[in-house]
UniProtKB/TrEMBL annotation:
The keyword Glycoprotein applies. Its main location: secreted. It comes from Holothuria leucospilota (Black long sea cucumber). This is Fibrinogen C domain-containing protein 1-A. It comes from the Eukaryota. Gene3D superfamilies: Gamma Fibrinogen, chain A, domain 1 (3.90.215.10). One of its GO terms (biological process) is positive regulation of heterotypic cell-cell adhesion. InterPro entries: FIB_ANG-like, Fibrinogen-like_C, Fibrinogen_a/b/g_C_1, Fibrinogen_a/b/g_C_dom.
């Protein structure tokens, strides 16, 4: 029997931490696997097939606390790319597509920068609208935004998420 799981995406913005959770139902089919590493995180990935999101990364991971930078390849996207997967908050498999905490990366940028992404997944970054489009068009998702201010105020919001379309 194939396990059913949820997918999750996470955002961090400005001095607030915004966590965006995408939830959907898909199945995981195990094939021949190889062990791979990115940074200090270990995971299993299918030969010639990268995981399509952080939920698949978590399903293939060799440890239970596997937050870190991984390579994924959403359905239809031409190449694998790095994302930060967070498995420490409200479930597992959260794909962080924006994080801005202390302002070390300049976010006043061109449309091309926002389309392609900028920064570093291990710090502050924007994943990119093109990558986000392929990621969110794979299945139905739910979005969850958690905010935390520097004054230790926190709250969250849950809603159905639409797709990010191409240009």
């Amino acid at each position: 029997m194939k396990p059913i799981y949820q997918s999750v995406v996470k955002i961090f913005i400005l001095s607030f931490i915004w966590i965006t959770t995408i939830r959907g139902q898909t199945t995981y089919n195990s094939k021949d696997e190889s062990r791979g590493t990115v940074g200090s995180s270990y995971f299993l990935y299918q030969q010639a097939e990268y995981p399509r999101d952080c939920q698949k990364v978590y399903a293939q991971c060799s440890t239970t606390n596997s937050s870190g930078v991984y390579l994924i390849k959403p359905d239809g996207y031409p190449d694998a790319f790095e994302v930060y997967c967070d498995n420490s908050i409200d479930g597992v498999g959260w794909t962080v597509f924006q994080r801005r905490i202390e302002g070390s990366i300049y976010f006043n940028r061109t449309w091309k920068d926002y389309k392609n992404g900028f920064g570093f997944q291990s710090n502050e970054f924007w994943l990119g609208l093109e990558k986000l489009s392929f990621l969110t068009n794979q299945k139905k998702y739910e979005i969850r935004i958690d905010m935390e201010s520097t004054a230790v105020l926190s709250m969250f919001f849950v809603s159905v998420m639409g797709m990010v379309t191409s240009e």
